[in-house]
Automatic annotation (TrEMBL):
Principal location class: membrane
Keyword ATP-binding found: no
Family: Belongs to the drug/metabolite transporter (DMT) superfamily. Plant drug/metabolite exporter (P-DME) (TC 2.A.7.4) family.
Annotated protein name in UniProt: Uncharacterized protein LOC111305603 isoform X1
Transmembrane portions of the chain: 91-107, 119-140, 161-178, 184-202, 209-229, 252-272, 284-304, 310-332, 369-389
Record's keyword terms, sorted: Membrane, Transmembrane, Transmembrane helix
Cellular component, GO, one term: membrane
Gene name of the record: LOC111305603
Membrane topology: Multi-pass membrane protein
EamA domain boundaries: 93-225
Subcellular location: Membrane
Presence of the UniProt keyword 4Fe-4S in the record: no
Length: 395
């Protein structure tokens, strides 16, 4: 600190300059101390980074964690289960096929409990194929997938559509001309034929345990339909003696057509698996089938049958069954894409067991020893496939 003073002695002028040090300035009164405190900065350099207008009083990770956790809490358990099933985990293929069979069972329950006007089979097939075509198209557009898949599997997709529609035509012809139980028996030879065709076409190894599981499920189905077959056989003989419209030669011909439906259905399973794996999209196989089956079934509806205008109630039921049919076809294609055909084919027999147990539980079917044994055989076989199938596939 500097101080200046001036003295006058006669005509001479003397100027005196005094420089005070830091210790001397500290010894001065409160004025000097207050002046130094005003000059002193409020924050030292070491303290400045700790307080900043861009800093917050809590960690920056907490808001991010909250943002991430909120969507997880919004996902329902059903959505999480479907994502787990569709993701291709260890049991995804078997669970997808089980869901497909359960959906077909639900369709059977709805058809039996909610009676509507009689609709011709080709008209019913046309409605379901059209709904399948529309929903699969919307699925592919929403997911951004190409409509016809990659270039390589297009031949497989065309063959899948042709063979699949041939199987559908054969089954419709068969179910119109033979008793319902016979047609169901023939249709459930498709899993066995598919396993054999997978060994021939796709060179899949068919193990003894898998053969035993298929045989166990098929014998269980024979136990279930044994009484129905013998009863309808007796009725058939009585009708033949009275010159009814059903003749044995026509039934044998219709049964052969039904077996053709099983063979083409087994080949179609192999084509679905090959096309789904080549295109990496199971819904593409469903869409390709709808492109051919929908217009073809429409032509057959107006050419071979008399069109029946459905009521609002019947149309609503047909739409609901069409949506369920689409979901069943999607899960079936995904199951074939992920798992061996011999394993997923055995899981399909669960539909028969569930149908019989539902009928017994609702008193629509009389319980019998054969039905109970058949359901038990199917449930044991399917449970063993679900439990041991993925283990063996990994090994």
């Amino acid at each position: 600190m500097m101080a200046a003073s001036a003295n006058t002695n006669g005509g001479d002028h003397t100027v005196e300059l005094i420089v005070l040090g830091a210790s001397e300035s500290a010894a001065d009164g409160g004025s000097s101390a207050s002046a130094s405190e005003e000059i002193k900065p409020l924050l030292t350099p070491s303290m400045r980074p700790k307080i900043n207008i861009f800093s917050v009083s809590h960690s920056r990770r907490k808001p991010r964690e909250i943002v991430i956790k909120v969507p997880e809490t919004e996902i329902s358990p059903v959505s999480q289960f479907i994502l787990w099933v569709w993701s291709g985990s260890r049991y995804s293929g078997l669970v997808c096929m089980a869901l497909s069979s359960i959906i077909y069972f639900v369709m059977e329950v709805l058809s039996g409990n909610f009676t509507a006007q009689s609709i011709p089979l080709f008209e019913t097939a046309f409605t379901r194929c059209t709904i399948t075509l529309i929903l699969s198209y919307l699925w592919l557009r929403r997911s951004g997938q190409p409509m016809f898949g990659a270039t390589n599997p297009r031949n497989l997709l065309v063959l899948r559509a042709l063979v699949g529609y041939l199987s559908l035509l054969s089954f419709i012809y068969c179910i119109q001309r033979i008793p319902f139980s016979h047609a169901i028996m023939l249709s459930f030879t498709t899993p066995i034929v598919a396993s054999i065709m997978a060994r021939i076409i796709l060179h899949e190894k068919l193990k003894i345990a898998e053969i035993g599981g298929l045989a166990c499920s098929f014998f269980g189905m024979l136990f279930i339909f044994q009484q129905m077959l013998t009863t309808q056989g007796g009725l058939l003989k009585a009708e033949e003696s009275s010159n009814t419209s059903f003749r044995r030669s026509n039934q044998i011909y219709a049964a052969l057509i039904g077996f053709l439906s099983s063979i083409t259905g087994g080949i179609c399973y192999c084509l679905i698996k090959a096309a789904a794996k080549a295109s990496d999209q199971a819904v593409v196989t469903v869409f390709s089938f709808g492109i051919l089956a929908s217009p073809a079934a429409g032509i057959c509806t107006f050419a071979l049958e008399e069109f029946v205008l459905p009521s609002f109630y019947s149309l609503s039921l047909m739409l609901a069954l069409g949506i369920l049919s689409f979901l069943a076809e999607v899960f079936l294609a995904r199951g074939l894409q992920l798992e061996k055909i011999s394993n997923v084919a055995n899981v399909q027999f669960i539909e028969v067991a569930l149908s019989q147990l539902w009928g017994i539980g609702t008193s629509r079917i009389a319980p019998s020893f054969g039905r109970l044994v058949g359901c038990l055989l199917i449930l044991i076989s399917v449970s063993c496939t679900m439990y041991f199938g993925p283990e063996k596939e990994i090994e």
